[in-house]
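// run 5 | inverse folding | seed 20
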């Protein structure tokens, strides 16, 4: 049976840590969906859903990774059922992720409307402490982003910071 995996997140913006998980998951499963949680009006995301999709699409093409990108609304378990997802992929960085990820997984398991398993991939050493919020902090202070995000994301972040200052 073909295995469909889903890697969900906010990806505001996508970092090299996320891309590492995407690349490794695409190699493991027959079909990979990158699920972007739709921005709610309440959250203060830097990037729109369209911008997030665009940035990830450019990276997939450049790196030749086979995956689909979908923005979704509502409960994750509904999306899992709708897309016939077999495996939910999450990334684990430091120990601090563990508690949140366990809560995330167990809650979704409790709400589950279809059968799926969660798989945790450990972050690669160089991205262990990398997060979207850290990257945004660096961008706001004109730090070097090269180690943390690909060039297309770096350019967009610099542009965003400029707009924020106007
Ligand atoms: P959230 O869902 O809290 O908004 P993100 O969108 O940043 O989090 O991340 C989605 C998933 O990617 C989570 O499972 C998170 O633990 C994982 N992740 C984030 N950054 C990294 C990284 N540097 N290395 C590995 N996994 C990561």
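// decoded
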């Amino acid at each position: 049976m073909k295995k469909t995996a889903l890697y969900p997140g906010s990806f505001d913006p996508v970092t090299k840590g996320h891309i590492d998980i995407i690349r490794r998951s695409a190699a493991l499963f027959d079909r990979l969906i990158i699920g972007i949680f739709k921005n709610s009006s309440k959250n203060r995301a830097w990037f729109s859903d369209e911008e997030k999709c665009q940035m990830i699409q450019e990276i997939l093409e450049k790196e030749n990774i086979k995956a689909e990108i979908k923005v979704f609304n509502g409960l994750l378990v509904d999306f899992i059922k709708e897309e016939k997802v077999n495996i939910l992929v999450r990334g684990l960085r430091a120990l601090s992720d563990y508690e949140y990820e366990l809560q995330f997984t167990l809650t979704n398991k409790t709400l589950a409307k279809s059968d799926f398993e969660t798989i945790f991939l450990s972050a690669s050493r160089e991205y262990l402490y990398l997060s979207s919020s850290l990257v945004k902090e660096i961008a706001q202070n004109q730090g070097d982003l090269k180690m943390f995000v690909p060039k297309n994301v770096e350019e967009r972040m610099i542009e965003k910071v400029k707009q924020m200052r106007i």
